[in-house]
Automatic annotation (TrEMBL):
GO terms for biological process: tetrahydrofolate metabolic process. Residues 81-99 have a biased composition (Low complexity). One of its GO terms (molecular function) is sarcosine oxidase activity. This is Sarcosine oxidase subunit delta. It comes from the Bacteria. InterPro entries: SoxD, SoxD_sf. Residues 78-99 are annotated as: Disordered.
Length: 99
């Protein structure tokens, strides 16, 4: 069982959350080439180790979070409100472990 430390509600069971996906991808500019958009929409890494993911606290405060999780051990390393944990807010964790 995963316990996610929601910054608004405190530690909660992961069953209260909905997983959205990779929080390290950034949306291309509207005029970006089609292959860049294809990568944004369809292509994802399958990282091994630390990774940032979007989770929605659907059965709690209904806030979007960026959760840092180790994909090998499932250890939760932290959680931030999504507006503070976007790729623009800092370097993406997990990219080092995946390479
Ligand atoms: Zn919450």
């Amino acid at each position: 069982m995963l316990r996610i430390p929601c910054p608004f509600c405190g530690p909660r069971d992961h069953s209260e959350f909905s997983y959205l996906g990779d929080a390290t991808v950034t949306r291309p500019e509207a005029e970006a080439p089609l292959d860049e958009w294809f990568g944004y929409v369809y292509l994802r890494d399958n990282p091994r180790g630390r990774h940032r993911e979007h989770w929605h606290h659907a059965q709690g405060c209904r806030q979007w979070l960026v959760v840092e999780r180790d994909t090998l051990t499932h250890e939760i390393l932290g959680a931030l409100p999504a507006r503070e944990g976007s790729p623009a807010a800092g370097p993406a964790a997990g990219k080092d472990a995946a390479e």
